[in-house]
Specification:
- By secondary structure, the protein is an alpha/beta fold.
- The chain contains eleven helices and nine strands.
- The strands form two sheets. A seven-stranded mixed β-sheet has the order 4-9-8-1-7-5-6, with helices on both faces.
- It starts with 11 loop residues before the first helix and ends in a 10-residue tail after the last strand.
- It binds 2-acetamido-2-deoxy-beta-D-glucopyranose (NAG) (7 copies).
- The site of one 2-acetamido-2-deoxy-beta-D-glucopyranose (NAG) has 2 residues, from loops.
- The site of one 2-acetamido-2-deoxy-beta-D-glucopyranose has 2 residues, from loops.
- Pfam families: Phosphoesterase.
Length: 374
């Protein structure tokens, strides 16, 4: 069957981009190869938590009509099997959300297909978000919350970055599942079969090869600036003693390394995932206040901007998955290649042949033309 489109995932374009930027320059001076034209020497990656594209950036279409965002005409029925069901239209009134909308494998299946039957709908109708949110807990009724996005003025940092830099509006979560499978994909291109967060396996560590080892192998540098717990330690290979010094406390070292021009070629910045007494979580995950996430992104951006490395830096701000929030762009559900042939656990036996819901991605660099809509 011919493929209708090139599947996009958080990992695939990412690894490709990195390969082009960092891993391709010729190392053998005698070889006749075209010199690399990329001015980028430092790629900084920040993976925020649990928000869809439309929820965070959909209304940025007002600023730039080229962005495939929301305009208020999108809606979900409260009951997908009732043609008379009342409709919930997508709004721009999002605020602090508590509790957390569903984003398990089952929940996402119902959100994108409108039912638990994923067999026959391509493209999927993206009409089950309101219904799924209501069914999770009718007394909490999160239907309105998931059918809502931020007004650009409520996410002022993104508003500024979207006007100045590039927004990707066809970037989907790698797996239609929860946080950790998607986070595993980001730096290794696979979740090694995981379709949910399984604490025992996370503690044990996942065994796949990661981009960090590839970067090492190419003689380049990497570093992880973490706050409370580095999620990258869920890769077992990164627990090797030789890598201990690659893990740096964000608060103590990110700004000073940036100021001194010492950020490694592949720099990962991890946010605070849990509230501390003195510092609230800043990962954007509900119920964590988006304001703190915005302040964190601003701090990372301003730190890089003031660094002597700025002229050779690219910052990628992306999200692990959509967190249960509505998105109107149909998730690619056919022809997605499995990274390694590993089949997920029962009862779904998922073959990694479809992607998750669209997530926000913004790429920031002095080499990007202002306001690039895609
Ligand atoms: C890796 O980073 C170092 C230090 O910034 C830089 O000198 C070097 O050119 C970078 N390598 C590549 C391939 O960008
Ligand atoms: C949804 O609509 C169908 C068809 O009218 C009905 O059978 C079903 O009970 C409704 N579900 C809920 C949760 O109201
Ligand atoms: C889909 O399955 C889940 C259990 O996996 C169930 O809670 C939910 O009600 C089902 N949804 C529909 C629309 O049948
Ligand atoms: C849930 O919320 C929606 C939107 O506010 C509302 O239309 C609907 O009637 C509510 N349903 C229940 C069962 O509370
Ligand atoms: C940025 O890099 C380009 C090309 O590498 C160079 O021409 C330019 O002078 C640099 N600008 C600054 C401010 O360093
Ligand atoms: C999933 O795989 C198991 C083990 O191979 C098999 O017993 C089961 O029937 C499969 N389930 C589905 C829904 O295909
Ligand atoms: C950091 C954080 O709280 N992230 C949440 C995102 O969603 C997953 C479920 O996939 C939660 O387990 C995480 O806690």
């Amino acid at each position: 069957m011919p493929r209708r489109e090139t599947p996009t995932s958080t990992a695939a374009p990412f690894l490709l981009l990195l390969h082009l930027l960092l891993l391709s320059p010729p190392t053998n001076v005698h070889a006749v190869q075209p010199p690399t034209t990329s001015p980028i020497k430092t790629v900084v990656v920040l993976v925020m938590e649990n928000r869809s594209f439309d929820h965070m950036l959909g209304w940025m279409k007002k600023l730039n009509p080229e962005i495939n965002g929301a305009d208020g005409s999108q809606w979900n029925p409260l009951n997908t099997s009732d043609p008379e069901s009342s409709r919930l239209y997508f709004r721009d009134q999002a605020h602090y959300v508590d509790p957390d909308p569903g984003h398990s494998f089952q929940a996402i299946r119902e959100q994108i297909f409108g039912s638990n039957d994923s067999s026959n709908k391509d493209p999927p109708p993206m009409n089950g978000f309101a219904q799924q949110a209501l069914s999770m807990d009718p007394s909490a009724n999160m239907s309105r919350d998931v059918m809502n996005g931020f007004h650009p003025d409520s996410v002022a940092v993104y508003k500024a970055l979207v006007s100045e830099f590039a927004v990707f509006d066809r970037w989907f979560a790698s797996v239609p599942a929860s946080t950790q499978p998607n986070r595993l994909y980001v730096h290794s291109g696979t979740s090694h079969g995981a379709t949910s967060n399984i604490p025992a396996l996370l503690v044990k560590g996942y065994p796949q090869r990661t981009i960090f080892e590839n970067i090492d192998g190419a003689g380049l540098s990497w570093g992880i600036y973490y706050q409370n717990i580095p999620a990258t330690l869920f890769y077992r290979n990164l627990r090797k003693l030789k890598y201990v010094s690659r893990f740096r406390p964000y608060d103590l070292e990110f700004k000073s390394h940036a100021r001194q021009g010492k950020l490694p070629n592949y720099t990962v910045v991890e946010q605070r995932y849990t509230d501390l007494k003195t510092a609230p979580a800043n990962d954007d995950h509900p119920s964590h206040d988006v304001y703190h996430g915005q302040m964190f992104v601003k701090e990372v951006y301003e730190t890089l901007r003031a660094s002597p490395q700025w002229n050779e830096t690219m910052l990628v701000i992306t999200y692990d998955e959509h967190g249960g929030f509505y998105d109107h762009v149909a998730t690619p559900v056919r022809g997605v290649p499995s990274p390694d042939g590993i089949v997920g656990p029962e009862p779904f036996n998922f073959t990694f042949d479809r992607l998750g819901v669209r997530v926000p991605t913004i790429v920031v660099s002095p080499w990007i033309n202002k306001g690039t809509g895609k």
